[in-house]
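cache lookup: miss for this entity combination. No prior model stored, computing from scratch. Input as submitted by user K.M.:
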Amino acid sequence: MNINITLLPGDGIGTEIVSSAVKVIEKISEIFKIKINFTEELFGGCSYDKYGVPLTEKTIESCKKSDAVLLGAVGGYKWDNLEHSKKPEAGLLKLRSSLGLFTNIRPAKVYNELLDASSLKSEILKGTDFIVLRELTGGIYFGKPRGYDDTKGYNTMIYTKEEVERIARQAFTIARGRKKRVTNVDKANVLECSQFWRKVVSEVHKDFQDVELQNMYVDNAAMQIVRNPTQFDVILTGNLFGDILSDISGMITGSLGMLPSASIGEKYALYEPIHGSAPDIAGKNKANPLATISSLAMMFELTFKRKDISDVIENSIKKTLAEGYRTADIFSEGTILVTTTGMTDQILNDLIVQ
Ligand SMILES: NC(=O)c1ccc[n+]([C@@H]2O[C@H](COP(=O)([O-])OP(=O)(O)OC[C@H]3O[C@@H](n4cnc5c(N)ncnc54)[C@H](O)[C@@H]3O)[C@@H](O)[C@H]2O)c1
């Protein structure tokens, strides 16, 4: 196996957490005898400082040539007052659209050791392990006409058959490798766009009869996620509903520093922690690298189809947490406070093939 990964460490803690992930990749390469080539490119504020733009064609080309992209985070106070198109965050939107990343996957997984970090009761959360699959490049955020004048404001919720089909296929395919259950979330009792969405999803389902399909209205889904999150496996939904549900789902599981994500298109895939560049702790060796390392586990599972490697990475996270190691964001009394590099060393120690 020969793998090419483009690294985009970005700004702030991005460089620290990506450097942790690189150590994990190097150890994985050693254990599993896989040749892994890295290309590192500037992206975000650091790219603006050098080239006057947050995202260069060279960086886009490198991403397109690689098998997967690992992103740290971009942004920071220094670039906050730039005009919109020069901002690091504008580079992020451009990167996602240049790579055609129409699926956003956010897992909501609770580690037993961190049950107390959530705002929900631990007995409700225990065993929670689902993902929100959000359509990312269509729907009401992009539909036209849109606008407002003195008397009205309007947007258009629109999905084409092709857009729904491709995300539905992703959802069923991913569910096949999990608990084989897809919950399609929409507002088909009110919106024609949702009725169409639901119809296309059920047509695609005919090719995936081994996966169970359930439909749920979005208002009910929001309630069910906090009432009984363990009932879900894969939540499939559109751009607007997914934006809201993925944040609810992320936060029921605790700290930002623990949450990975994947954005996937027809050809390319990008993996990143959901948090930002955390300028308040940047350069202090305090950042939690686990969201990035967990994003790496997603990369091995989804892009390289190596669930075995993904499991080894996930198990090392579980073991490290069970041994009591915590960065400051997840620290509690009775646990062992470690730095970014300290946490990374423990993960490397615990990367064991069973
Ligand atoms: N995908 C991205 O690159 C991305 C996402 C969100 C925000 N941003 C940018 O990041 C910058 C900072 O944004 P923000 O402060 O609103 O959000 P943030 O996620 O960077 O930080 C929010 C809080 O969480 C903490 N935190 C975040 N990640 C952590 C980690 N791994 N370990 C420990 N603590 C962590 C930070 O210290 C901070 O207190 C802004 O410029 C914003 O635009 C980038």
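stored under new cache key. The chain has two domains: 1-102+265-354, 108-253.
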